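QA checklist item 7 of 12: single-chain prediction sanity check.
[x] sequence parsed
[x] length recorded as 674
[x] structure emitted
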Amino acid sequence: MWLSESIDSRPLRLLREGSGVAMRGEDDRPVASRVGVEVAAPAEGTFWRFDSAAASGLELDRTAALDLTVWYRGHRMVVGLPVAVTQARTTEWEAAPPAATRVTIRGAAPQAQAVAIIFDCSGSMGQRLADGRTRLEAGRAAVAELLDGISRSGRWDVSLWLYGHRTRWSRQRDGRYVAGLTPAGKVAKAAAGRAGQPFELVPGDDVEQVLPMQPLTAAVVERISATLAPLEPGGETPLYRAIFDALKTDFDGGRADIPGHVLVVTDGANDQSGGRSVTASSVEHQLARTSGRRRHPLRIDVVGFGYAPGGADRASRMDDVRNLAMASGGNFFEAANAESLAKSLRESLRVSRWRLRGPDAPPDGVSLGASLTLPPPPSGRATAYEALLESGENAPRRSFETEGGESIELYVAGGGRTLEFRRYDGGTEQGLRDSRTDLFAPSDPRRVLFVGAHLVSRSGDTVRFPLSIQNANAAEFSPRPVEAWVEISPRSSDGAIGGPFVFYDLSYQPNRPVPVLELAAVHWPRSADRAEIRAWFRFTTTQPDVALALADLKPGIERRLKLAGLPASELRVTLTPADTPDHMQLSVVETQVVTVGSRLPGAKVCVTPGCLRAVHVVEPETSRVRHEFTVRTEGGRIPPDALLLVTDKQRLLNGAVSVTSRGDVPLEVPVSGD
């Protein structure tokens, strides 16, 4: 037996299992042009399948009939067979497991800037905090953490100054105080001795630049941490001299074209008993002199760590420090503990952290560029959260909702004053191929959408179509629609190839910053090299025409339903008896009269909650749609809240956002071969 397009044409290749024929088709299955047929009594049915090349040729040529030729005992018999290319369209959906949501806030790389950090190592930094650490231990940990963060977030130049770290006062038995050296001071004295230099340091002059101004790299961060690690609380607080020297050394020459400032971490006011005295007015004069030659004026920020007034004189002197900082255009931060110290340091360098508010949100904030993870929300429910920068009372913030599995991304904009979302274009993975924007929702004129069709992916005869639904204003949050109806029609250069694939089960690609539907068309026609997409979206739920509790169905007993909007249609519902304790099968057959068969499917048919899998097969030749559902059971019983919902298609489309509502042509995307 063989099949051919005419009596004289070559036989078409057929797939043949176990034939022993050496020739193989595209899918590596054996093929044959002529096959033997067993003659048996009683008669037995058999079937063959064309290989992909033969099937594509018939589809492209729109062959109407084939010749079946049979040789039997020297007799040749030929009969014509009509060819009907099936119009059946299959779509499949599977429930996604609960998934966490990742949220990230990204900031644009800050402008290059230089900062001179002055760190107080005076004796009072030895006082302990509530967590048991000394002020010095908490301070150097906060500085190291800050520098490690900014070394990865922008172009920074940093210098490090210390004071009170090499000298200390010790009280003798007679009550007198004697100036001595800390371990760091003893090391410095030994080094001076080896170099043949005198070492006559007094507490009032104990100011040292331990790291010259230089680009901040990971290696420099390690050097700073290693420098701070062995320090012990020591001597006095020559604060003004340290600021004066930093202004003159670090900013009185180069780096005049980039912003710069001095950052002081101290637990007290200027306090020195000798050495070269520098006053607040001397610092102000040097600041004015240095800033006058710079493109960006310098500022001084002071972080008062663990500061307590301790008397009128000390409070007055601390007010002088505060006034110095404010007059320079800087800030004075009062940091009572290690946490507020870290926050003050970030605010001084204008390096923001961010955090989340909402159910089960992580309690701690993270730096820009880092991510936070939210737990999977209750199934089918969107949970509201708020992301905000930790940058003061009027901190930028944005609200959003998550249903699980997203990868929400926000960006710092407006010079740090706002947070915004961005357009998702698919990148190189699945870039946009066609789109529509400024699509208004008839039921809500305030909602305006951007809908994008992305690059498709193909695996065998299954083609996956990504379709993103985004806010037309890309800076605003893009929520997921609650209902959708999408029709994807196969096309070739000769026109339409059968009816559309219809999708209304919502399946989203994981880890996307915006909703991206994943629409899988099974048995995509091989000759279709492109697709036309019509889509409708709703953000409010349509009241279903039928809501049938599955627990009310008797397994094996068919239930028949009618829809008021589709009087010529009928739905036959059958629940299969359970053969496993964790799920059951539900079959729904939607039938319409032949004259309206082109409207198939005429309704959205779904099961919620508890649906594990859904398969929809549209059969225009029989004017019916077969819906097969796998439903979760509990101990072999269907939960009482599991419902079969049926909604008239036209009611769902009325008031929905449509990509063709303005008379636009459908979205079009190319579909490549295997």
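[x] summary fact logged: Residues 18-28 have pLDDT under 50 and may be disordered.
[ ] second reviewer sign-off
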